[in-house]
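Practice problem: predict the structure.
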Amino acid sequence: MKSHSGLLVAAALSLASCVTPKEEIRTAEVVKPGQHPERPLFEWNGAETAGPISITISLAEQKAKIYRSSKEVGWTYVATGRSGYPSPRGSFSILEKQAVKSSNKYGSVVNSSGNIVKSNATAGVHAVPAGGRFVGAPMPYWMRLTSYGVGMHAGPIPNPGSPASHGCIRLPPEMAETLFSVVEVGTPVTIK
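Answer:
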């Protein structure tokens, strides 16, 4: 009996040493693509390849593939239109390019001191205080796709793989700048 109880005490001590004190318990770290080198937001290999560019955007995957002379030379996460603000589907071509542009529809309302009083505002819908103004959201590296204001541009990709925009196709800033430098007015873009 003594040897059996001695084994139980030894086992209990052994198990007690396996328990980690509460302050040492670590939770899993959530890492989004783009925040870790092994999970980038985009990849570009088009500098070495010549030929015309074309772009295919998948709304289901929230990714775009970039082709040069029909050869895939890059991909990127995108953020397309969220619920209530769908991005259009179909075949388009770039109608206009502007390196510096702001939205004339979505942005913020600021007061006379320049302080934001309403973020995520819509021009003509949200009131502007006396002396205040509407400030359009920045849309750098604008590449227009429709006559009614949908285009590709640099913007936040808050949850890669999920829609987040008011209908435009947001691109990571570095990839937007790269695409802006290689596309031309007339470059074909397919959204499916």
